[in-house]
Amino acid sequence: MPVKKVVVIGAGSVGATTAYNFALADWVDELVLIDINRNRAEGEAMDIADGTVFSGTVKVYAGSYEDTKDAVVVVFAAGANQRPGETRLDLAGRNLNVLRDVIEKLCKYWSGGVLLIVTNPVDVLTYAAQKFSDLPSNLVIGTGTVLDTARFRYLLSKHCKVDARNVHAYVLGEHGDSSVCVWSSNTIACVHVDEFCKHRGIPIPDRKEFSDKVKRAAAEIIARKGATYYSISLGIRRVCEAVIRNQNSVLTVSGLIDGQYGITGTAFSLPTVIGQKGRIEVLDISLPQEEEQELINSANILKQVQREHGL
Ligand SMILES: NC(=O)c1ccc[n+]([C@@H]2O[C@H](COP(=O)([O-])OP(=O)(O)OC[C@H]3O[C@@H](n4cnc5c(N)ncnc54)[C@H](O)[C@@H]3O)[C@@H](O)[C@H]2O)c1
């Protein structure tokens, strides 16, 4: 069996927490941390490696770009995060420079696999990563609205008093202020969420209130503790598990859009089947006109940012 090696570039809050989560997984053999701050990568790797005595047999170390050669997945989590009051899109200029620098070094050694972009604005960086790397578009994935979808399902599950795993709901489009909470097809046990609430005497969720809560979730956390990393690290782990274990999981990851809803020339999230070959199929689900229009607006906002940054 070939060694399942994962490389995490950026050993900050998100990268280190992700690495810690990988050390707890039984489907990763080797884990490499790379950071421009070598000491940071070494310190995090040493701390995680000490714990593998309790957690499993994953080999963890701080490395260099040469170590990416045979990685099945490379996670890009390097660069600036939002300061209070900043939007994700405000980070584009700074983080596109970091991405360009990293991809140039990565492409010298990496024999290819799935490149998972996490750094914000994740959709703009996913689009740029495909251009900078020239990798096939199925292999360049952004975490997109994986976390927003989790937040939406969690909020609905609390409201409806059911296990979040039984709430089927999606957030599509940009991972950011123009994200689209899909209300038309939210279900619990094959029943629309509104119907489910009616039958159980629970107030029907206020759509605007829930959408706003999903959009504001990261800002609320950043205002209190400066960053978010636990939840996204579990989202990253989920996407990587789907790839490494070839699970054909449907996840709302970001990737190049190829004509769905008439949209091209950008990357954002749609429900996508994920496996060893990355994005296997983007599901073109039918949406009411209003939600389709919200997605088109979201694409236009992303394209505007791309243009401003010469992409
Ligand atoms: N997609 C999501 O849902 C999601 C969720 C949370 C955070 N994020 C994003 O993840 C990114 C990282 O956040 P964080 O909290 O870990 O930030 P952080 O500041 O804690 O860590 C960033 C790390 O990147 C490293 N770095 C900077 N330039 C580099 C380069 N050229 N090469 C290698 N390493 C470099 C820094 O040394 C630092 O260790 C941010 O852009 C943040 O917005 C995304």
The main β sheet shows up as: 6 strands, parallel
Task: Please report which band the strand proportion falls in: under 5%, 5-15%, 15-25%, 25-35%, 35-45% or over 45%.
Answer: 15-25%
* Average pLDDT taken over every residue: 96
User: Whole-Å distance between the termini?
Assistant: 40 Å
Question: What is the 3D form?
Answer: globular
> So what's the oligomer here?
single chain
Would you list the SSEs in sequence order as H and E?
A: EHEHEEHEHEHEEEHHHEEEEEH
Q: For the largest beta sheet, what order do the strands appear in spatially?
A: 3-2-1-4-5-6
Could you characterize the architecture of this molecule?
By secondary structure, the chain is α/β, with parallel strands linked by helices. 44% of the residues lie in helices and 21% in strands. It contains nine helices and 14 strands. The strands form four sheets. It has a six-stranded parallel sheet with strand order 3-2-1-4-5-6, with helices on both faces. It has a three-stranded antiparallel sheet with strand order 7-8-9. α2 links the parallel β2 and β3 (59-62). The model has no long low-confidence stretch (mean pLDDT 96). Bound molecules: nicotinamide-adenine-dinucleotide (NAD).
